[in-house]
């Protein structure tokens, strides 16, 4: 930004992201929920 305005962006920690992804997988049983964690080489 060129006008000097800053924006605060809240993000999850790595541990929180993993917990969210595993929780989603356990609820839905869709491999795509773990794909973000494991990557493309599974």
Question: What is the strand and helix layout of this fold?
Answer:
Blueprint: H1 14-28, H2 32-38
Helix pairs in contact: 1-2
Question: Could you explain the architecture of this structure?
Answer:
With about 40 residues, the protein is mainly alpha-helical. It has one domain. It is about 50% helix and about 0% strand. The protein is built from 2 helices and no strands. Helix 1 packs antiparallel against helix 2. The longest helix is centred in the middle third of the chain and has 15 residues. The model has no long low-confidence stretch (mean pLDDT about 80).
Task: Give the count of structural domains.
Answer: 1
Shape: elongated
Q: What low-confidence regions span 5 or more consecutive residues with pLDDT below 50?
A: none
What would you report as the Rg, rounded to the nearest angstrom? 15 Å
- How much helical structure, as a percent, in the residues? 40-55%
Mean pLDDT value: 82
As a percent range, the share of strand residues is: under 5%
Order of helices and strands, N to C?
HH
Number of helices: 2
Total strands: 0
Largest sheet: none
In angstroms, what separates the terminal alpha carbons?
A: 39 Å
Helix/strand/pairing class, anyone?
Answer: mainly alpha
Summarize the structure.
The chain is mainly α. The protein has helices at 14-28, 32-38.
